[in-house]
Amino acid sequence: MITYEQAREKLAAAGQEHALQYWDELTKEEREALLSQIGALDFSMIHYVKDRDELPARGKITPLGAMELSEIEEKKEHFKELGLAAIRQGKVAAVLLAGGMGTRLGSDNPKCMYDIGITHPVFIMQRLIENTMDVVREAGCFIPFYIMTSEKNHDATVSFMKEHNYFGYDPEKIRFFTQDMAPAVDYDGKVYMEEKYRIASSPNGNGGWFTSMAKAGLVDELKKNGVEWLNCFAVDNVLQRIADPVFVGAVLDRKAASGAKVVRKVSPDEKVGAMCLEDGKPSIVEYYDMTPELLSAKNEKGDPAYNFGVILNYLFREADLEKVMNEKLMLHIVEKKIPYMAPDGTHVKPEKPNGYKFEQLILDMVHEMDSCLPFEVDREKEFAPIKNRTGIDSVESARALCGKCGIVL
Ligand code: UTP
Q1: 322 pLDDT more than 90
Q2: Could you give the CA distance from residue 395 to residue 348 in angstroms, rounded to a whole number?
Q3: Strand partners, 185
Q4: SS3 sequence, 126-189?
């Protein structure tokens, strides 16, 4: 653990000395907790709140075509064979990104514990494991299954899985690892205090997953076991196919460096990131960065040129991830509601945004890859995200889509 002096120096370098303002009032345990948090947190990005023009600008965006459903259907058996062979050789692992806070869903439990059942309990995690089991049965072997949590939801996630006997998955094939946290600041770039002995912090976005995996010693394990491809996916899409052999096979067949499952957007301004090229390299343009020109651009078929949205289901090559691990990913400074402790000691849960969180995103990793195959999936069959309680991308809409796919809830 760092000393008080080291903590003071680290904070001073980032203009955050106020985090030690209650030091004299703290117990021994509280002091230790604060020092250990200061030791672990990275404050180096906070200055970008003031120096945003130092963040890299976006490159030139041009279209990137997808492998569409008709082509996939034609070559499905061939792709599937290739993918299943890679899975049977132990070359493919699944990585569930479950470190998010799920604030929009508004449950205190980790999102994976949310019950979407109607007549009987069906937990989000259960759906993900059941989807993976389809491939396990087809391939005749379990797929290494990594789960990223955050310090806020780790213990609850691990005990939930244990309690439910891993929903029938082989526990030997499951590994948990925890992602890093990032400080949360006010509009002047000063960290909020959550308690007198605790800086307000939250998970640092889903982009740090591979670095966190490496820190946990799991990249060594991947290499030892000959895993070459990692299929990363979000916790909230209860219809997604995991380690989908057809997707894996298509990426292998195309000799692409990575792959991204995409859906045809319902309208050019749908709120999903769209696959594109940025300065000639694969990339994803966020919906809020779509200019009127990009929104109205057409391809040679007359379709919208940025017609395919990502669904957070990617395939990356382990060796490429190691190569780019130390490259700085784009930093996202996101306005959020940050609960904090006011100077009078009361705890405030703000109704409106009151500052910034810092995140790195997995979608920016795609830009580090030499190529990426956008692989179209039928959104009615593979895209049922649960972000909100009601309305768009909600428990209600996901239940309806599950029903259409014959899943009894
Ligand atoms: P979202 O962008 O939906 O964020 O995450 P969230 O934190 O889950 O939900 P809100 O915005 O607070 O309502 C997309 C995926 O990335 C994971 C989430 O668990 C989800 O699978 N994620 C997100 C992480 O693993 N870590 C993070 O720091 C953020």
Answers
A1: yes
A2: 29
A3: 191, 356
A4: HHHHHHHHHHHHHHCCCCCEEEEECCCCHHHHHHHHHHCHHHHCCHHHEEEEECCEEECECCCC
User: Which two three-digit tokens encode residue 321?
Assistant: 């991830």
| Cα separation values, 136 from 93, 129, 131, 371, 408, Å | 12, 10, 9, 28, 21
On the question of pLDDT at 20 being above 90, the answer is: yes
Alpha carbon nearest to ligand 1 atom 9, residue: 102
Q: Is 165 left (phi over 0), alpha (psi -120 to 50) or beta?
A: left
- Spatial contact of 256 and 249, defined as CB atoms under 8 Å apart: no
Contacts of 377 (CB under 8 A, 6+ apart): 69, 241, 261, 262, 263, 311, 383
Q: Is the dihedral of CA 160, 166, 167, 173 positive or negative?
A: positive
Q: How far away, in angstroms, is 206 Cα from ligand 1 center?
A: 7
Kindly give the interhelix angle for 245-253 and 69-88, rounded to the nearest 10 degrees. 100
What number does the ligand 1 atom closest to the CA of 362 have? 16
Maximum Cα–Cα distance across the chain: 70
For the chain, the residue count is 409
52 Cα to the center of ligand 1, angstroms:
24
- Encoding tokens for residue 378? 């039928």
Ligand 1 mean position, distance from CA 199 (Å): 21
Burial (Cβ within 10 Å: 0-12, 13-18, ≥19) of residue 400: exposed
Q: Quick one: pLDDT band at residue 87, thresholds 50, 70, 90?
A: very high
Q: Can you tell me the mean pLDDT for 248-252?
A: 98
- pTM of this structure: 0.95
Which residues have a Cβ under 8 Å from the Cβ of 280 and sit 6 or more positions away?
62
Which residue is closest in CA terms to ligand 1's atom 22? 100
With a Cβ cut-off of 6 Å, ligand 1 is lined by 97-104, 111, 148, 179, 203-206, 234-236, 312, 387
